[in-house]
């Protein structure tokens, strides 16, 4: 089982990386919610078009927007 190193670094199992297409040098996003950390490979343009109708609330920073989405009650 992988362990967290002294610098809080982790080694992702090769089989899991191959399963989801993560390669050395890939960029990723990291989310924390409900006591879990989720790592997602960043894909350029992945949401392009899908979120076209969503307008940004200029009063919120990106971090504030993410926090409000994570803290919102689930339906």
Report on this model:
This protein has 75 residues and is of the alpha+beta class. It has one domain (14-71). The chain is 23% helix and 16% strand. The protein has 2 helices and 2 strands, in the order αββα. It has helices spanning 14-20, 62-71, and strands at residues 28-33, 36-41. Strands 1-2 form a two-stranded antiparallel ribbon. A hairpin with a 2-residue loop joins strand 1 and strand 2 (36-41). The chain is extended. The chain starts with 13 loop residues before the first helix and ends with a helix.
In short:
The protein has 75 residues and is an alpha+beta fold. The protein has helices at 14-20, 62-71, and strands at 28-33, 36-41.
Keywords:
2 helices; single chain; alpha+beta
The end-to-end distance, rounded to whole angstroms, is 34 Å
How many beta strands in the DSSP annotation?
Answer: 2
Query: Percent of residues in helical segments?
Result: 10-25%
Discrete helix count:
2
Order the strands across the largest sheet as they lie in space.
1-2
**How many structural domains does the protein architecture include?**
1
